From TrEMBL:
GO cellular component: endomembrane system; endoplasmic reticulum-Golgi intermediate compartment membrane
Gene name in the database record: Mppe1
Chief site of localization: endoplasmic reticulum
GO terms (BP aspect): endoplasmic reticulum to Golgi vesicle-mediated transport; GPI anchor biosynthetic process
Entry keyword set: ER-Golgi transport, GPI-anchor biosynthesis, Hydrolase, Manganese, Membrane, Metal-binding, Transmembrane, Transmembrane helix, Transport
Role, per record: Metallophosphoesterase that catalyzes the removal of a side-chain ethanolamine-phosphate (EtNP) from the second mannose of the GPI-anchor protein intermediate. Participates in the glycan remodeling steps of GPI-anchor maturation to allow an efficient transport of GPI-anchor proteins from the endoplasmic reticulum to the Golgi.
Organism listed in the record: Ceyx cyanopectus
Location in the cell: Endoplasmic reticulum-Golgi intermediate compartment membrane
Phylogenetic lineage: Eukaryota, Metazoa, Chordata, Craniata, Vertebrata
Protein name (Swiss-Prot/TrEMBL): Metallophosphoesterase 1
A Pfam match: Metallophos
Top-level taxon in the UniProt lineage: Eukaryota
CDD domains from the UniProt entry: MPP_MPPE1
Cofactor annotation: Mn(2+)
Length: 389
């Protein structure tokens, strides 16, 4: 039998365990539901809300970028554990709460894909498939990035093919869903130097451009070149790629998740930070897109290109790259679209919660063992000393 003092100690210990467990469960599990629950699908331009009546006409798309799953060379096991848990919980919570039709990841899925051995690659793929698993009702589409296969000078047919095999991606692919045309671009291959991979990628894009142009021709004025061409929905396409189209810098970008002020004025290097001017003009001429979605910079930016074509640079989805990751929610129809950004829990706030809970835990422990002077008794001692004087 426990004594009265022993029972008190056990009761106090159980209370501490419950307190610590509650803080941990909230910070590592419930907080994702609390934050993402506040996000909702935007209304499509023209006032059509995303509801049960017109859900079949509106494509609900989640867009994220630059997950950078750490590899065997530079990735520390603790860093891997923390970052992958955060991304998995965020992604799975978003799927459960928002139930999108399709998810796009705009490249740099892996951090070391350009260096990975076959064994390391297989391990990275296994972890990715566990973290970003989707139900049957949600389609997952992954775009190729420079960290997945290397920059242009590191890119090889072997690396590209193993990526294509896992993610069913081709360097220039058309995806049509609910009458909406998406063009998936291998922006790493838009070097313009005539390399084998670059030439093949550009040829596929040219063919897609021709097919889209034929589909948009009026039936009363058909072209001979389009006579045997398979018709596509006559919808202006949306470009999805890793590199942003050419822009001088992020100087004009704004918002809490844009680049830090000290980085905004740094000029971008063509074919490294952004596509070259030539490659950007080619894509714009070929497809005349109504929207461009890109990643790579790890920061948010909204650019209006010539012809009032908007480009949205999607920030990194990993807390390793920023304190406030986010993803884009898009309600898209064949003629319109509406976008909304959903922020994930700020890591600084999670750390603040842990620190506050730790401080409270310390105070409770000190008070329980009477190692902390009660404030009232301390005040009484000060008053009594003052009177004695």
């Amino acid at each position: 039998m426990l004594s009265s003092a022993g029972k008190k100690q056990l009761c106090f210990l159980l209370k501490l365990v419950c307190f610590v467990s509650s803080v941990f469960i909230f910070c590592e599990f419930l907080i994702y539901y609390v934050v993402i629950f506040q996000c909702g699908w935007p209304e499509v331009k023209g006032g059509a809300p995303v509801d049960e009546e017109n859900s079949t006409a509106v494509l609900k798309a989640l867009v994220l970028a630059d997950t950078h799953l750490l590899g065997a060379i530079k990735g520390h096991w603790l860093d891997k554990l923390r970052r992958e848990w955060q991304m998995e919980r965020s992604f799975q919570t978003a799927l459960w709460l928002l139930q999108p039709d399709i998810v796009f990841i705009l490249g740099d899925v892996f951090d070391e894909g350009k260096w990975s051995s076959p064994q390391a690659w297989a391990d990275d793929v296994r972890r990715f498939q566990k973290m970003f698993r989707c139900p049957v009702s949600t389609e997952l589409v992954v775009i190729l990035g420079n960290h997945d296969v290397g920059f242009h000078y590191e890119m090889t047919p072997y690396k590209v093919k193993r990526f294509e095999k896992v993610f069913n991606f081709t360097s220039g692919k058309l995806l049509t869903r609910k009458g909406i045309n998406f063009i998936l671009v291998n922006s790493v291959a838009m070097e313009g130097d005539g390399c084998g991979l670059c030439h093949a990628s550009e040829q596929k894009l040219l063919e897609l451009s021709h097919q889209l142009n034929c589909s948009q021709q009026k039936p009363s004025h058909p072209s001979k070149r389009c006579s045997n061409m398979e018709k596509l929905p006559a919808s202006d396409p949306i470009l999805l790629q890793h590199y942003p189209l050419y822009r001088k810098s992020d100087a004009e970008c704004s918002g809490e998740d844009s680049a830090p002020p000290e980085e905004k004025s740094i000029p971008f290097k063509e074919k490294y930070d952004v596509l070259s001017q030539e490659a950007s003009q080619k894509l714009m001429w070929w497809f005349r897109p109504r929207l461009v979605l890109s990643g790579h910079t790890h920061s948010a930016c909204e650019v209006l290109h010539a012809g009032n074509i908007p480009e949205i640079s999607v920030p990194s989805f990993s807390w390793r790259n920023r304190n406030n990751p986010s993803f884009i929610m898009g309600s898209i129809t064949p003629t319109d679209f509406s976008l909304h950004k959903c922020f994930l829990p700020y890591e600084s706030r999670v750390l603040t919660l842990y620190c506050a809970a730790g401080a409270l835990l310390l105070l409770l422990t000190l008070a329980h063992f009477q190692l902390l002077t009660p404030p009232v008794w301390f005040a009484q001692r000060l008053i009594s000393k003052h009177k004695a004087v």
